[in-house]
Amino acid sequence: MATAKLMDFDKALELFEPVLGFEVHVELNTNTKMFSDAPNPANEAYHAAAPNTLIAPVDLGLPGSLPVVNETAIRSSISLGLALGCSIAPSSRFARKNYFYPDLGKNYQISQYDEPIAFEGEVEVELEDGTIVQIPIERAHMEEDAGKLTHMGGSTGRIQGAEYSLVDYNRAGVPLVEIVTKVIFGTEHRAPEVAKAYVATIRDIVRSLGISEARLERGNLRCDANISLRPRGQEKLGTRTETKNVNSMRSVERAVRYEIQRQAQILADGGTITQETRHWHEDTGTTSPGRPKSDADDYRYFPEPDLVPVEPAAELIEELRAQLPEQPVARRRRLMGEWGFTDLEFQDVRNGGLLEVVEATISAGATPATARKWWTGEISRLANTQEKDATELISPENVVALQKLVDAGTLTDKLARQVLEGVIAGEGTPQEVVDGRGLAVVSDDGALIAAIDEALAAQPDVLAKIKDGKVQAAGAVIGAVMKAMKGQADAARVRELVLERAAQ
């Protein structure tokens, strides 16, 4: 595939106005699927299930099977709609969305079309510098997921060039809420940042509601980014593309930037944009063509004949409204004040995706300062080295236990970092790593005095300087002692003893 020509980003923004729209799919973590009693693989209890074991006749579209709607999924959908600032429809209905994919056993998907459960909302999104952007929400509707295809034998993992495909119907019928924005104008050069911040905000809302794990890398949260460019001074919108397969916050940002640069160059060269899906490639940071993008009319929607309309009681809606958590922006502002962080300190936590884990660490007994220090410092460094998410490496409880060992004088900061590496390597709790590696600080003054006397005897010139009152010379002896003790000594206590022994 030929490499696409890209226009400089700033130049692209001089010539064109970026116009955005997002479709975010949220997998609900209900115990069972949307329309069957099969276990839901988006629920933590079933993550390890073997392919094609979490299935029921409804999921496969077998003749004679009838869907029954999941009440918990409806409640979760209403809660999410309310959190998005939407109105909840007094009556909504399901529809059949007809299309033909190998991973769609019924050859249609049960979704909502013209009567979604939630509509007309707005989400407050905060950018990294604190700027607030309002994102208009058109609708949030319920639907079921399709199965999952795994393409084998090709070099890219896509159907092009593959020798055969495997179908796993475990995911078929997983409850989804699709959140669709209205057309978003005015983001200009911050369009990629707005995209990233919006998806992060949806993730935060969903997690706070407890209705999904919302992990992009697992597919619990999936973002399709619609991007078009409008020439400056023109009223008519440009042709959009829909970028799929975006599985991280950073990728959302990169994909929007790439499409702006790609489309700008095509238009500047006199070409036209094809309305199509495009696939994001994380390894190359590029998009490639997928299939021509259909409009809604092409799916031949019609009302689902086997399901009655959803008509939630007004009392239920108000009950769920009363249970809504804080909005993400308000929560962040409250936590920053409670923790006493500066704007920059809080940004480090937030931008690193560490807000929840820092909060959990503080709740487990750490001070805000020590929680921030560990997570934004050594843990993040190790995560970057291992190319992993920092939150996967160690639990908040173990971070607290590690800090308690430091506070008790059992570990120096240097030793604590070694213990941290041991915990991450699977050697046990901080105390177990200390015991297993023998890393506790030597608190026996006798052992320290012996090492100090040996170091003083080896450096008589330094001893003479200390006796003359040049106490800064003690650093050389302290260094020698710490080396002899393999770092397992309290440097402050070593200094005290060095000065005492030198004075004798």
UniProtKB/TrEMBL annotation:
Region annotated Disordered, chain positions: 277-296
Lineage top rank: taxon: Bacteria
Coiled coil: none
Residues annotated as signal peptide: none
Pfam families: GatB_N, GatB_Yqey
Keyword annotations from UniProtKB, A to Z: ATP-binding, Ligase, Nucleotide-binding, Protein biosynthesis
EC code(s) of this entry: 6.3.5.-
Record-level Gene Ontology MF annotations: asparaginyl-tRNA synthase (glutamine-hydrolyzing) activity; glutaminyl-tRNA synthase (glutamine-hydrolyzing) activity
Substrates-to-products reaction catalysed: L-aspartyl-tRNA(Asn) + L-glutamine + ATP + H2O = L-asparaginyl-tRNA(Asn) + L-glutamate + ADP + phosphate + 2 H(+); L-glutamyl-tRNA(Gln) + L-glutamine + ATP + H2O = L-glutaminyl-tRNA(Gln) + L-glutamate + ADP + phosphate + H(+)
Zinc as UniProt keyword: no
InterPro entries attached to this UniProt entry: Asn/Gln-tRNA_amidoTrfase_suB/E (IPR017959), Asn/Gln-tRNA_Trfase_suB/E_cat (IPR006075), Asn/Gln_amidotransferase (IPR018027), Asn/Gln_tRNA_amidoTrase-B-like (IPR003789), GatB (IPR004413), GatB_Yqey_C_2 (IPR023168), Gln_synth/guanido_kin_cat_dom (IPR014746)
This protein's record includes keyword Glycosyltransferase: no
Domain Asn/Gln amidotransferase, first and last residues per copy: 356-502
Assembly: Heterotrimer of A, B and C subunits.
Cited function: Allows the formation of correctly charged Asn-tRNA(Asn) or Gln-tRNA(Gln) through the transamidation of misacylated Asp-tRNA(Asn) or Glu-tRNA(Gln) in organisms which lack either or both of asparaginyl-tRNA or glutaminyl-tRNA synthetases. The reaction takes place in the presence of glutamine and ATP through an activated phospho-Asp-tRNA(Asn) or phospho-Glu-tRNA(Gln).
UniProt family annotation: Belongs to the GatB/GatE family. GatB subfamily.
NCBIfam families recorded: gatB, PRK05477.1-2, PRK05477.1-3, PRK05477.1-4
Descriptive protein name: Aspartyl/glutamyl-tRNA(Asn/Gln) amidotransferase subunit B
Taxon lineage: Bacteria, Bacillati, Actinomycetota, Actinomycetes, Micrococcales
Gene: gatB
